[in-house]
Design a protein that fits this description.
By secondary structure, the chain is mainly α. Helix content is about 75%, strand content about 0%. α1 (about 1-25) runs antiparallel to α3 (about 40-60), α1 crosses α5 and α3 (about 40-60) runs antiparallel to α4 (about 70-90).
Length: about 120
């Protein structure tokens, strides 16, 4: 199970880093009209935060002192996805795809965080 969690963490870190690169190269209005309410400064701050969170998912591979970093990063990524889904839904957009993606990513982040926080019962 630990190998599966690590593979999942790396995949989530890559997805988060790719999202950060996207945010650096596009404004919120260019990305999707429904999230154009996000100011450009906040958009770039989200990109920097995503890079730090992506690093937080893989740094625990360096040793046990960093063990709680991964579930904390996964929790923060899930929160960001929920916020972006809320902004999209609040915009009145009829498209459910972006919100659905955000909710799936939030659920995946929550699962990873849960599996890393909760001790193994056996």
């Amino acid at each position: 199970m630990n190998i599966t969690l690590w593979a999942f963490q790396v995949a989530l870190a890559v997805r988060t880093a790719c999202g950060a690169v996207w945010k650096f190269s596009h404004t919120a209005a260019q990305t999707m009209p429904s999230i154009k309410a996000i100011p450009n400064g906040a958009w770039k701050t989200m990109a920097v935060t995503e890079i730090l969170l992506a690093a937080g998912l893989v740094i625990p591979a360096l040793g046990s002192p960093f063990g709680t970093l991964a579930p904390c990063a996964a929790t923060a990524i899930g929160g960001e996805m929920l916020l972006l889904s809320g902004v999209h839904l609040g915009s009145g957009s009829k498209r459910m795809g972006p919100s659905g993606y955000g909710l799936v990513m939030a659920a995946a982040s929550a699962l990873l965080s849960y599996r890393r926080f909760v001790p193994k019962p056996f």
